[in-house]
Fold these 3 entries.
Entry 1:
Amino acid sequence: MVQYMDKNSGFAQWNANKNATKKSPMSGFMWWFLIFVGVWWLLGTWMTPKSTDVTNDASAPSVDVSSVPVVNMSNPQIDFSVRGLRISDIYLNDFAVSASDATRVSLLSGDAYSEFGLVANGTTAPTATTIWKNKDGVLSWRNADGVEFTRTLTTDNYVIRISDTIKNNTKNSISVAPYARIVRENDVASSAGVSTGAIAYENNDIERIDWRKMDRRSYAYTTTNGFIGFADQYWETIASIDTPDQTMTIKKSGLNYGADVIVGALSIAAGETGTISYNLYAGPLAPDALLGANKYIAGIDDTIDYGWFGFLARPMLWFINVLNALVMNYGVAIILMTLVLRLLMWPLTRKSYTSMIAMQKMQPELQRIQKLYANDKMRLQMEMMKVYQTHKTSPMSGCLPMLIQIPIFFALYKALLVSVQMRSANFLWINDLAVMDPYFILPILMGATMWFQQSLQSASRGKSVDKNDIAAQTQRMMRWMPVLFTIMFAWMPAGLVLYWTVSNIFGIAQMYIIKKQGK
């Protein structure tokens, strides 16, 4: 039996061949990375948000309110219409539909609306069809029992404050339960890449509900305080009531989607007066605007969906806005931010390039080992690993800068998608850095610079004659990266492609500097 187990036996050769066919960890990693790139490209192709910036909300309303007079109100940020209990047709004065269309962005337009009212017990409360008296913008209505309802509306930037005063002129106690409601259609077309749909803030936690989920079921929440509403890619409409013990519901009815909140009843004794306050935020998903609204609607500043890498996206977006305030162009701001990031990664990049130079020096020794152990694949891998350990380098080291950039990539992608400021920001031939380059110039430049950078890296490490060399496998796999990235980035936001292109150019310059210092 022993004679069949020596090193020249068929079993030994079979075992050596079996070990030789095992994929290296690096090869496995690269295959998974290629799969990731392919999936990301498919997502970018199938799920790129459409340029649907104006919300055409809701089909025909269930109640005809055409007989209720309209009161138009405005401040520097918004214009809106008040029709009894309902507020709709909210125009954002600082935002146009697109770079080529100067029409103002509108929220809750058409037949969509927000409604703020009361459910009464012991008397009659105004309904959506109630006709109020209007005196200098103050609405009033008196029911048959003599109970007086007065409504005052004020604004603060994108927040509309509604204050109801109920004076009980009867001889008995009454109770009123305030409610708020937003009704609209969905906006699935712009739901790719960002979370759009309903938002519920309950017990200090944000709940996001996609449009498709609302198609399948309804949602209900009970909380001491919170808010409810809908968010699109760049805008949101949020309603809240300044009263505890709230019940919030989200459901679909026909073609419409409704977000409702009702609170516990307020008892008003005979001859007494009760006051109820509501809030409606209708504006951009912008950090500064939401921070200002937070004093009326607590927690609203957390409604921007920054994704998994929000801890990176938030400071990156803040830094880009700071740079834009200095240079007055978001394209230039992205370039400057890229340079800062590359400088911060300089030690890691230097180590990576130094490792490549060391691998170039290792080539004669690696080739000698490859020839010496050409028929013993197991021994070949062991000897090659010894060489890597002696020179204190690894085939993986060249991929570290790319691995570090993956979370930066996702964070910046998310920041560009949700940034209202980046929307319609121009740079050279690009009219909107938040959408794809219409001429595909940036993706081609990115692919070319990536190819040139890899050609320099390949020249630095030299070519290996052995197909089982892990570094050689990596090099062969990486040859396809420029092509795959060019295709993938063709549908990505132009600002993201600009970042990657500038990063490649700076990486090329870094490589030249490190090579010159190493001579």
Entry 2:
Amino acid sequence: MTHLARLATIAFGLAIVAGGAAAQPDSHRVLRVVPNADLQTLDPIVTTAGVVTSHGHMIYDQLFGRDGAQRPQPQMVEAHDVSPDGLVWRFTLREGLAFHDGAPVTGEDVVASLRRWGARDPHGRQIIQITESLAAANARTIVWHLRRPYGLMLDALSKPAGNMPAIMPAGIAATDPFKAVQETVGSGPFIFERAEWVPGSRVVYRRNPAYRPRGEPAEGTAGGKHVFVDRVEWLNIANAQTVALALIQGEVDYVETPGVDFLPMLTGRGVRTLRTNTLGAPGIIRMNHIHPPFDDVRARQALLLLVNQREFLQAMFPDESLTQVCHSFFVCGSPQETNAGVPPGLGASPDRARALLRESGYDGRPMVIMDPTDNPFMHAATLVLAQQMQAIGFRTDVQATDFATMATRRAIRKPPQEGGWDIGLTFWNGLGASDPVGNVPMQASCEKAWPGWPCDAAHQALIDAYPYAPTAGERRRILDELQTSAYRIVPYVPFGQWFLPVAHSPRLTGVLSMPGIIVHWNIRKSLR
């Protein structure tokens, strides 16, 4: 064994031992996974972080799932119907649904969970605003009365990413939706092992023996969620080389975001790669709209004109086949892709950007840029941004952090000099970003908006109108107007789109695709 391989094995061993786990099951019954970030929050309602949503899908179920074509399909629901006028929805739960503590899932649990979700999710907020009543008719039936039809109801209830509509016990769902739940009791296919959770090191789940999968074949988050391993371990290993060597040595089984520099080495050693996200991930430069200088639209427009997507993508990924320059806020390759409103000179107008920055009144204060150094390609993009900003007169203060800590810090509304921030780079799953309502960073609902807090009533009105458009042509018109508006107010700056595969051991079969999350059911692990 080489010295580097020994280092990888040692690092992996430390991650395994950290929680003081009891006797382990046979190795082929344990799935060891390296997610794209450390899990620091357990509540999939209070954050849109992908790792938290993936955690949510492990332990919670939803009324509806999404198949491979992103069509809503019943999951917890046995039957459903809607009145001819689209105002009354009735959902009947499957028999035998139970939470991890043995309590049955009831209509009251569903109602409480959906109300909590509806306080945070963009779709959910729209639906709650037009809700006449939402109540349990009996233990297994929920009736939802609306004041006007909502055309995206099943799309909202089946959304796999973002603020997921997770079903929790009513007592837990009563938690303030702006405070994270402390108990993690779901009805999903895995049970969270809190005693073995070591933040920064390891998360452990065990198979839920009482889970009753649907009868249909598994597809995305739809169909039967059959679990063929006894235990899943998420390991936080930040070094990409260590992760690659551990995967080759068989010490880990699945890597959500392998280091792109190591992909040729991995495939050359028999590791399998799979593009599970067909819409890829759009990059997002998020500015803080509530503090100078980005409270002035001219400073945001300066950044928009400045950012050269090709420079970012070349610094992030050596293989151009993994990337795409994209100026559509609603994702290139999606049905919602549009070129409406794209201004000329994007990424090639430094003089105009410099003039706009001066007009904004920027006073030369250092811009606090959060730099998630545990993600190599986001770290590279951050350094490119700082360099481009300096070229037109910005002063920058690049502050090293990790991705999970950045996700927590960006919720701080204090001025940057008091622990807040000016800029943070992140990425979204392409499926969520392609949805005009589900594109959370696109929202401009002021203090209710995603951190960065854009505020523009006319822009938000377009988002709010989209689900009520009576025809496809009217939806397209609103979509074009919305993108034109986005280029006007600049809620964020896109910096390209990329398509990273997951990497997994050849011992695994049944790996499913679903944009934006890790899906662990349906996976079998052979003995060798």
Entry 3:
Amino acid sequence: MLSRVEISDFALIEQASLYPGSGLTVISGETGAGKSILIDAIGALTGERTSRDFVRTGSDKAVLEAVFMEPTDDPEIEEDDGKVLLERVIFAKGGTECRLDGHLVKLADLKQAGDKLVSIHGQQDSQIIFKEREHLDLLDAYGREEIYPLLNIYENLRNRWSAAKKALANLGKDPQERERRLEILRYQFDEIESAGLQAGEEEELKQRAKVLGARERILRDLGETHQILGQDDEDAVGTLLQKTLEILEFSSRYSQKIRTSREELQQVTADLAEIKSDLMDFSRRLDIDASELPLVQERLDLINELKRKYGSSEEEVLSFKAETEAEIKRLESGEADFHQLNAELERLAAELETAAGDIHVRRTKFAQELDADISSELIDLDMPNVQFKTMVKAHASIGLQQPDSEAETPATGSKRAGWPKSGTDTVEFLISPNVGEPLKPLAQIASSGEASRVLLAIKTVLASVDKIPVLIFDEIDAGVSGKTTGSIAHKLKSIAGSCQVLCVTHSAQIAACADTHYLISKIVESGRTSTVLELLEGEGRVDEIARLLSGAPEDKVTRELASQLLSQT
């Protein structure tokens, strides 16, 4: 149950504490006193989206806290056992901070926890029963123990069917189309394969082309280098080095230093001879390959053509070749895969039909039970002549988007474009508020007051199967008056027997039924307006109920009536 709510600097609330009781807690006050602000604060605490505009003017942040406790009468259980703490900080500069049991969490995590603890039903929420999608969800929630497991089976089959359908689409349904695709892929693979392209080849060819393009100049330079390094001329480097070795030969016999230097000079001479030999070999090859440049350029043109077709680089071309080869293998074995996947689709479609049929049977069963329960609740809410019916229809063609040529799809539904979530049923609430009128969709018949009562009846029925411990109703009595309001009050009291109920109201009858009653009002202090919460007891409750009755709490007759209302609950 919701044990405590602390609100600081949220809108007009500077500081407020709310301690709801275990049964029905009512919050009343003048119009504009801030009742909706209180609901907004609890909504923000349970993960609803909020805005920095809610931060009180002059404050840098709004702080919201809520404590939920597992109710127990066992003195052996520690106070903190079963406690859940929700916290939300809203910053004036933008952004929020969420905590769950003191730990920072994402907003989605806070909302997930809040959804399990609190269900808020505002005035606009009565409109949800006008939406057919909500009707399906409400019926499934009513029969959850039997329907939810079947929905899980159906969803698993639906995912497998979708995967098989996607795999079949990748193969191509038409064998002739698949063969045409194979022909194209084989041509592309063969073109790259016959080229014999190697990784890094293009860069090597470009460097070779540069060399061949400068062949004449390179040959001349190499000839001059050979002359300088050779021994054909007495001024050549090779000749001079050899002469130097001969000159130092005698002296090296008498000096270790000279001998070492002469040996190093011999090494230099040998290295120079090797360099000269390498350059001469390169010169001879370059002289022989005079016709190589056109061949290199032709090879580069071939590589560029492959890049134009299959990728912007050698790596992309080779990657395209590998992918093409893999697809060729897949499509070549596709005939067997095609028949296998078709058989799989047929089998899964048959299982989906069966699963959808099982769901339909359960929904039909629970629709009848829901109708009986809601009709009983509506009688308690002063709608004794109403007829309420949950219409469950199974649509074999729901969600189909197939061409006319597939109009005669077999009953297995293997050519479906898709299986809808939650089965093939549509659910619609029908109502006849008055005797002699036909059943029509709820949206066409129900007034706002009737819609509120139907929603309350549904919530009453679902309270027995819904495990959410706290229900909050924001002016569920809007649009109703008189005896009907009293019926709603007693119905809220009944719901509060199985879960904790908070209700914002303008109704004296509802306020009188409360186990705990808070008054919300505005005060002005030091030129600032604030909203405050006050727990009402004794004469304070009489005053507020009298105000709700006539707006004149000081009137003696009204106060007597208020006292009577309190004594009757």
